[in-house]
C-alpha cells in the first residue's frame, strides 16, 4: 500500500533511472495528454511530496502522479520484461537510452507547468519526509478540529503529508488510543509525541523493502492486517472495522485492550486474519 515511505522509495528509483538523462520515449496514456511528446527533453529530478510524485522536465514542465491504492512506477533495464501488470493498465512510459520507467494503474497523471505545481500539492500539510517538515505546524493542523476522530485527522493530508491506512492504525496503537477517539481528547503529552513519532516511523522504513513498526523479525506490524490474531503485547484478539467520512471506508485495526477510546463493533474481518499488502513492497 503506497504511503509516504513507499512514494519516497519510488521517487528515489525514478530519480536514479531518469534524472539528468534525455528522454528517448514518452507515452502518456490518458486522453488529455495523449498527444504530449516529451522526447528530447532532459529529466531534471523526481521529487516526492507526501504521497505525490513530481517528475520535473526541462522546459518548465512537471509530470505529476499519485499512486493512491494500487498505482506503481516500475523501472526496467533495456530488453527486460515488463512485469507490472497487463498492457491496458499502463498509463505512462518514460524512457532513455538505459532505463524505462512504466507507470501502472496511475489514478492521477497530469502534465503541469512547474510554476503551477502548487495547484497539485499546495494544499498539503508538512511533509513527514520532506524539507518543509515542521512538527509544530503539523500538530496545530491536527488539533484544529478537536472533535475529529484521530484516525481521520491522521489521514487528512492537509494536516501532515505521508500517512496512509497502515501508519494510521500503527500510530494509534503506539499512542494507546483508538482511531475513533476525538483527537482533542488525546492527552497533551501523547499529542505532542504524535508528529515526531510519525516522522520516525516513516524515516526508519523509507530504506526498507519490508515495512516494520515493531522492530521484531517476522512480526512486522502491531495491528494492521492482523485481525483476529492476538495482540503482540497483551494477546487480546485484534479487531478490524471500517472507518471513514462516508466518501471512502478504510479497514482500521486496533487492540481493544491496549487502546482506549470509543470504537465500533467489529463488522469486517480480514480473510484468514491477514490483509493484502500489509508490509512487503516491490523493489522495482
From TrEMBL:
One Pfam short name: Fapy_DNA_glyco
Q: Which residue intervals define the domain Formamidopyrimidine-DNA glycosylase catalytic in the entry?
A: 2-103
The name of this protein is DNA-(apurinic or apyrimidinic site) lyase
Q: What does the record give as EC number?
A: 4.2.99.18
Q: Write down the chemical reaction(s) this protein catalyses.
A: 2'-deoxyribonucleotide-(2'-deoxyribose 5'-phosphate)-2'-deoxyribonucleotide-DNA = a 3'-end 2'-deoxyribonucleotide-(2,3-dehydro-2,3-deoxyribose 5'-phosphate)-DNA + a 5'-end 5'-phospho-2'-deoxyribonucleoside-DNA + H(+)
Q: Where is this region: Disordered?
A: 243-284
Family, as annotated: Belongs to the FPG family.
Q: Tell me the SUPFAM superfamilies matching this sequence.
A: Glucocorticoid receptor-like (DNA-binding domain), N-terminal domain of MutM-like DNA repair proteins, S13-like H2TH domain
Q: Where is the FPG-type domain?
A: 222-260
InterPro entries linked:
DNA_glyclase_Znf_dom_DNA_BS, FPG_cat, FPG_N, H2TH_FPG, Nei2_N, Ribosomal_uS13-like_H2TH, Znf_DNA_glyclase/AP_lyase
> Which SMART domains does the UniProt entry name for this protein?
Fapy_DNA_glyco (SM00898), H2TH (SM01232)
